[in-house]
Design brief:
alpha+beta, two-stranded antiparallel sheet, 4 strands, globular, 30% strand
Length: 70
């Protein structure tokens, strides 16, 4: 998991994102770990949004195929 390097599609690995809310980091890295355990290779990206005024978190997983129902 990481961020795109400037002006490229190359991923730079991160252990946490210091500009994101801690709740978002927790959810994103938990999803990454679950995908690894499930060997879910068709997960292309994970986007996490955290509510500012509410205790809500939303995660969106983008997959490369509809065949992988995990």
């Amino acid at each position: 998991m990481g961020h795109y390097a400037r002006s490229s599609r190359r991923i730079v690995a991160v252990q946490e994102c210091p500009v994101h809310d801690d709740r978002g980091n927790i959810v994103a890295f938990a999803l990454r770990d679950a995908c690894r355990r499930a060997d879910a290779r068709e997960v292309k990206s994970i986007a996490v949004r955290v509510g500012v005024s509410r205790a809500e978190t939303m995660a969106t997983l983008v997959v490369t195929s509809e065949r992988d129902k995990r």
